[in-house]
Write a structure and sequence with these properties.
Length: 150
Amino acid sequence: MGNCHIVCFGNELHGDDGFGIRIYTELCRLAWPEDVEIFNAGIAGLNALRFLEDCRKAILVDALANFGKAGEICVLRPEDLADRPQRLSGHGLGLPYLLEALKVIREPLPEILIIGVEISAAKPFSPGLSDDTAQAVPETVRLIRGLLSE
């Protein structure tokens, strides 16, 4: 179990909620060591738990709300999400619920980081990222590469 899983969440048909999926697309264009796997979790909900099996480290990528100003990239730990309500429509119960479920079914837990960007808006049936969110994509990719080279 020496590998890292990068799990990207989002719905590209809902505006900035597609941030994680855009990151997935960009990450798939790059060469990665054999011990790094990248997953498109889309809107998988609890079905995404399977992407967190058999890994030592997991990086979860998703759109964020109420963590900063639009376009701001955040690096969080699971405890940073614990008492924050998810306010994005379409997100359902979101990452906090997934992380709580993971605690019940997996021991030991992988080291988990959450990489996200504060989005402008999740607009149903409006594909494409806002300018602020789109501008955060290249830096987010560099950040993830940097975290894995440490």
